[in-house]
Amino acid sequence: MKAFFGFKDGSGDWFVIIDTDRCSGCGKCAEACPSNVLQVGEDEYDPFNEEPVASVREEERKKIRYSCAPCQPGYGETPTPCITACEPGAISHSEGWKLMYGRQ
């Protein structure tokens, strides 16, 4: 299941997307995140999943656009630290940052 953490407003979609089926719960993404946005714990979207998974901290969800912005310069040119650290490739970011930097 893909879990979307963040928000959508008139300026775009601002989400960190975590594929909970691919997430191993290793915590490397949380360690790599310089803004301390990510955490590893219980899967809040799938009560039957007993394995830990990554998620965005509750207090960061409504400000994800700003919390993740320092890692986004040149969106798409280089992966963010969380994406680089995620060996199973379970993390992605929505298209809002692409629009912010005027990229198609």
Overview of this protein structure:
- The protein is 18% helix and 26% strand.
- The protein has 104 residues and is an alpha+beta fold.
- The chain has one domain (2-100): Alpha-Beta Plaits.
- The strands form two sheets. A three-stranded antiparallel sheet has the order 1-2-5.
- The longest helix has 5 residues, at 28-32.
- The chain is globular and about 35 Å long.
- The N and C termini lie far apart (27 Å).
- CATH class placement: Alpha Beta
Number of strands: 5
Number of helices: 4
The fraction of residues assigned to DSSP E strands is: 25-35%
Helix content: 10-25%
Shape: globular
CATH topology: Alpha-Beta Plaits
**Mean pLDDT metric:** 86
* Annotated CATH architecture: 2-Layer Sandwich
The SSE string, one letter per element, is: EEHEEHHEH
Described by strand count, sense and barrel closure, the largest sheet is: 3 strands, antiparallel
Strand order in the largest sheet: 1-2-5
Q: Find the structural class using helix and strand composition.
A: alpha+beta
Low-confidence stretches: none
Number of domains: 1
Distance between the termini: 27 Å
Using only CA atoms, what is the Rg? 13 Å
Which descriptors would you attach to this protein?
104 residues; two-stranded antiparallel sheet; 5 strands; 18% helix
Q: What is the structure about, briefly put?
A:
The protein is α+β, with helices and mostly antiparallel strands.
